[in-house]
Task: structure prediction
Amino acid sequence: MPIVVENNRDQFQYQIFKAGDLAGFVQYRMSGTEMWVLFTSMKRRFKSAVLADILMHHVLTDAHTSRLAVLPFCPAVRTFIAEHPEFANLVSAEWHGRIPFPPDHKLEEGQKIPLDFVRLTGSRRSRLHETTLESDDVAHYIGAEAVGSPDTGAPVQGVAAEPAEG
Result:
């Protein structure tokens, strides 16, 4: 079953589903033309850097498509933006100092990755197989129509997202 990302506007959440089960979400609030990204939560049994990356990529691509400024209160999203500088233009200048390191900086061993900042919920014992880029459902999701980088329109390396909801 494919991976699906939806914007649940009633709950102010972008939700990611794997095999029909809610795997995680990004909570946000709207203020005019600003999207306040508050926190990211993944169910422990779906803990996966790939799923978290797909979810955050979708949120930021949708914000770009909707011409929204992003205020990344969520440390996982700030770290994701630092790792994907094509999204840095969504963040206003006064927030750039809160991005953990310069966008052109590569992660060094021991540095945090976005998943380290994601709130995990559920039992530590219940854990499915980790989702990787080689997983069938991820290959199906990435094989869907790729969304381009906000700056160039070229496909973003490593993660593709479904088009934003209309």
Observations:
- Strands lie at 3-8, 13-18, 21-31, 34-43, 69-72, 119-121.
- Confidence is low (pLDDT under 50) at residues 142-166.
